[in-house]
Amino acid sequence: EALKNVSPDHLLRNYCAPVLTVLRAYDEQNKTEYFNTLRMFVLCERNYKEAAMKLNIHKNTLYYRIEQIEKLYYDKSVWDPEFFFTLSSSFRIYDYCQKKIRIMDARKQTQ
Question: CA-CA distance, 21 to 56, in Å (whole number)?
Answer without folding.
Answer: 24
